[in-house]
Amino acid sequence: MIKTLISIGIWALLGWLCAPWLGANAGWMLFTFGLLAMILVSGLQLSRISRWVKNIDAPPPPSVGPWDEVLAPIYRQLRKNRQDIALLNQHVNGIMLAAEALPDGAITLNESMQLTWCNQTASDHIGLNLETDRGHSIFNILRAPEFARYARQNTWPGPVLLHLQNDGQEKSLLVQLTPYGVGQFLIVTRDVTQVEKLETTRKDFVANVSHELRTPLTVLSGFLETLRDMPAESLSGEQKARYQNLMLEQAQRMQAIVADLLTLSTLESSPTAGGEPVRMGSVIRNALQQGHILSNGQHVFVENIAEDLCITGVETELASAVSNLLTNAIRYTPKDGTITVSWYLTEDGHACYSVQDTGIGIASQDIPRLTERFYRVDRGRSRATGGTGLGLAITKHVAMRHNADLTIHSRFGAGSLFSLVFPPARVSLA
Q1: Is the pTM of this model over 0.90?
Q2: What are the structural domains of the chain?
Q3: A Pfam family in this protein (predicted)?
């Protein structure tokens, strides 16, 4: 504004100075021409400003006269606002990335309990599709009566446990609803499927250990009470010897269970085994010698063993796995059955130890659970054969520690094939 007044004053001064020489009319004409020139220049400047206003992200036009003092602070403020918005967007993006990286699911709802956003974990937990489910009521998306009763409460002091089916798999989710902001709600989901399985396994393990030890303890206590309460002369030497043998048998059974439990604990303490090359041919031969003794000539053994094939690992663990598979085959194969023991190198460089029998076989529904601790297809028959119910669990852990796979193929009444397949990285030749 000051520059404009100064310019008008200059043109007026020029007209006044020229009036004595050129006349008053010439002075006024010069003053009028100056004003017209200023109006024309101002129009051009306003036109440039008008074009800039359509793209305010660009720097303002230079040299627009008195408008420079107006445009400069506006542009500086606009640039500062853009920087602040960019910084806020960066923070928001960081928060969104952090929310996406959360191991728990996060779902935001508006005041009408309609979905506004969710992270990928929540999509996996509940099967949400943000593109199609946004704006829909959470009660139409998560159709669980337990959740509906929980969400319609006035307060939510704790989470609710839901059991959902998603993609054919059952999941256990802890769902916590929390209000935040103004009329907004947050749902946090946590997958506790594995935790529930571990808790069930722990309970089953405690129950199974108690059950397995209770039988021999009952027998032992029964015989001890009998020997204590009966007069010494009422039992013959033969009866005493029989009672002592039965008690010794039950004590040895408890020792075997405890030994196998300690073995399992040792195997679980480290995920992988190092070791050195083990001549598996010798290990299998030793297991076969013990197998012949256990069989007592009642079975036919067929051997196919590569003597020079070695596995890098722990010999005692490998010997335990080899013996467990062979012992199971002997125990569950009827008299005159055939047991085939093989140790060979496959075409793709893997080493395979397999035990095939013509025994009673296993029903298909029982095969996935065979490696569980204390799982028995036929409890009565298993105890009669002297097994602890831990052999295949030990074998599975030995296989895992040696990066091997334990495969089981069987058909009820038609025999079984158990195989340990070791990766090429652990195979060597003697």
Answers
A1: no
A2: 2-81 (no CATH), 103-191 (3.30.450.20), 203-268 (1.10.287.130), 276-429 (3.30.565.10)
A3: HATPase_c
